[in-house]
Amino acid sequence: MTITDVLSGIDEVTPWQEALYKDLHRHPELSMQEHRTAEKITAELTALGYDVHRVGGGVVGVLANGDWQTVLFRADVDALPVEEETGLPYASTVTATTPGGAAVPVMHACGHDMHTAAALGAARLLATHRDAWAGTYIALFQPGEEIAAGARAMVDDSLTAVVPRPDVAFGQHVLGALVSGHVGTVAGPVLSTAVSLRITVYGKGSHGSMPHLGVDPVLLASTIVVRLQSIVAREIAPDDFGVVTVGSVQAGNSANVIPESATLLVNVRAYDDSIRDHIVAAIERIVRAECEASRTPREPAFEVFDSYPLTTNDTDVTERVTAALVEALGAGRVEKLAPQTASEDFSVIPDAWGTPYAYWGFGAFTEDQEVLPNHNPGFAPAIQPTLRTGTEAAVAAALAYLAR
Which of the 8 DSSP states describes residue 166? Predict the structure, then answer.
């Protein structure tokens, strides 16, 4: 049997899969709170005959089918604190409580519900066509991708001891950069490394009419924001990629009071760890220098959080997967994907074993739809052919290594 033979059964699973997708979209859950989602996945995998494990807040299904290679396919399952504005009949109306105690609306604004439904569809097709392949298939559903916590939580909860070592690992993401029905692959860096910093600078409080008696952290923070933009412009080579974003500046709560401190939230991205490290070091250098220039009474404080590794595809694995995708979808639906500036913690999982991997994108919107970015309140991929394509891609990649 060929990849095409296995995928010939996809029409039979479509009604179940679309209903599953709508249910997941209607019931999103925040990172590391994906309890209902995990129960749903566990029930589906168990019914298909997988050996199911709950690990680090995630779910892993293992399907052994003889002696041959072992393939792992990962899907992320968490949603975002975003209020949905899609107008869909299956739109989320869910609210949840953050770790800080705030009540927030929740939405699958990044497409992880599509990832989950596609991965479960692939798991079902492989389970019902075991005569087409041999080896072991691992369907892994990871929590907490949006806060860079879930992959590490699963590894720290003895993932490598619970499931067999995969020979190869796969992941995918629905993207607006591709037309629905198409997939895109690239060898080497595919997603950037990223890190966020919380920087607190300290001033000396004073009356707004007496600035000479204080040290103004608002002015200090403003000079830091401007100066940070010089790092990429003047310290990074023009043919290298780097981004510095100041996403938040918070200080004071009154027009005529010079506050005691200001806090900046800064995000860094690069396609190379050494460039990321250079940017982070430059940020600290600039912040300290501006603090000294402003005669601050205390040293600035730095906190690193939401650290994402570089996602870089193995060349041989990518070539093999791309060939399988062309076989399954046709050359006209397989594109060269430009490296994406977004970040992922997927690679933490294969890296725990030293396993090579490939990660690709599949299109979210049809040509007649408005293309919206992930994390937008209106992000609503076309169910079809998006869901079908994600399922086809997952099956094709697995069979590139497991087909008899």
Answer: P
Q: Which residues pair with 248 in a beta bridge?
A: 265
* Average pLDDT estimate for 202-218: 95
Residue of 78, 113, 290, 345 marked catalytic: 78
97-108: average pLDDT? 92
Catalytic annotation, pick one of 76, 113, 145, 314: 145
Who's near 150: CB < 8 A, 6+ residues apart? 31, 32, 56, 57, 58, 76, 78, 142, 143, 144, 345
Residue 260 confidence (pLDDT) above 90: yes
* 318: nearest Cα among 340, 341, 334: 334
pLDDT, tens only, 170-203: 999 999 999 999 999 999 999 999 999 999 999 9
DSSP string, 299-337: --EEEEEEEE--EEE-HHHHHHHHHHHHHHH-GGGEEEP
- Neighbouring residues of 30: CB distance < 8 A, sequence distance ≥ 6: 78, 79, 80, 81, 96, 98, 104, 106
Which range among 8-12, 218-222, 249-253, 370-374 shows the weakest confidence by mean pLDDT? Answer: 8-12
Residue 145 falls in the annotated catalytic set: yes
Active site includes 78?
Answer: yes
Q: What is the pTM of this model?
A: 0.92
pLDDT at position 1: 62
From residue 195, how far is each of 7, 118, 173, 185 by CA, in Å?
A: 39, 29, 20, 24
Length in residues, the chain: 404
